[in-house]
């Protein structure tokens, strides 16, 4: 029963992460492209500050059980915080320079980088042959889809590649921290938000985002304000589900969630923005990518089922070795 509950929790968190991540990408692209919103550091700062303040209030009122923010907590999650901030920064900058479908193509290479870094960093990080095949198929689909569009901003391509590398490192480091630390994902988000908020506030001042935002004409449009607020709250939810999904499942699984949700993101991007056309190469790449994602889901299903059966078998074998069991066998 516990195995089934854990499995469904992992699936639920993965689905939630995909929904929040895809929604945030689309909303941010709307702000940047349709409304010419360029205050990206401000979005990061407010997202981090909102998460820190909300979790602090919930902790104070006893709604959640997380430790207070201390220097030791900051020290424990400092590497994760650095990569988290870099990843979100590069993601925002790559969204500015790339079309939404091309941004998704870059993100579809995430499983390959996550797998490669995980093998080097994590203990028992060597994957099965099925997982490797699924990753290679997915990456091949991303390369095929990207071959049809090389017209984006060069700066967007550079930041896109860096965003994928840093994102993969971030996911692997989360998994490593979850194995070595006693704290859960909620504590991790609290520590990251509290540590990053002052730094992002200083960056917002230095970049003049906090100053120039008052002269932005788009605030007169209520749609801009609504999308801006949604981005902040969805960003908080996405950060938590990223941590939670990686804690419960794995770094590679979290990266594959991004691949699965990208189908909807690509569709919306092509319908809402006119910066890329659905070429045959692009559609072919999407199909190959989808096959890779399905392959990974099937492989992980059978691997999880095999692990569950192994745990049940070991539990029964352990019970069979109890003295009471031996006495019962002798009496019979």
Automatic annotation (TrEMBL):
The chain crosses the membrane at residues 37-57, 101-122, 129-148, 154-174, 186-210, 222-240, 252-273, 279-299. Keywords: Membrane, Transmembrane, Transmembrane helix. It comes from Mugilogobius chulae. GO terms for cellular component: membrane. It is a multi-pass membrane protein. It is found in: Membrane. This is Solute carrier family 35 member D3.
């Amino acid at each position: 029963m516990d195995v089934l509950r854990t499995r469904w929790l992992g699936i639920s968190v993965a689905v939630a992460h995909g929904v929040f991540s895809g929604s945030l990408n689309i909303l941010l692209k709307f702000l940047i492209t349709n409304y010419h919103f360029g205050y990206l550091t401000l979005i990061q700062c407010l997202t981090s500050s909102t998460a820190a303040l909300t979790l602090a209030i919930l902790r104070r009122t006893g709604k959640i059980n997380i430790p207070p923010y201390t220097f030791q907590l900051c020290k424990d999650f400092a590497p994760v915080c650095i990569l988290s901030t870099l990843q979100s920064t590069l993601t925002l900058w790559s969204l500015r320079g790339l079309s939404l479908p091309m941004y998704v193509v870059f993100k579809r290479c995430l499983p390959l980088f996550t797998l490669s870094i995980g093998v080097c960093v994590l203990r028992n990080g060597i994957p099965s042959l099925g997982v490797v095949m699924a990753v290679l198929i997915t990456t091949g689909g991303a390369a095929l889809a990207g071959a049809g569009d090389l017209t984006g901003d060069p700066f967007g391509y550079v930041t896109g590649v860096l965003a994928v590398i840093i994102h993969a490192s971030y996911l692997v480091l989360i998994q490593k921290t979850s194995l070595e630390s006693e704290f859960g994902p909620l504590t991790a988000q609290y520590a990251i938000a509290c540590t990053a908020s002052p730094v992002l506030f200083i960056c917002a001042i230095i970049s003049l985002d906090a100053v120039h935002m008052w002269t932005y004409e788009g605030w007169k449009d209520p749609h801009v304000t609504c999308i801006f607020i949604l981005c902040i709250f969805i960003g908080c939810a996405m950060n938590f589900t990223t941590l939670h999904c990686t804690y419960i499942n794995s770094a590679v699984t979290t990266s594959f969630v991004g691949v699965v949700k990208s189908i909807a993101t690509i569709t919306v991007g092509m319908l809402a923005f006119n910066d890329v056309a659905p070429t045959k190469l692009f559609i072919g790449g999407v199909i190959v990518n989808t096959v890779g994602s399905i392959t990974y889901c099937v492989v992980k299903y059978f691997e999880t089922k095999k692990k569950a059966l192994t745990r049940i078998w070991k539990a029964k074998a352990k019970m069979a070795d109890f003295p009471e069991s031996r006495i019962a066998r002798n009496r019979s």
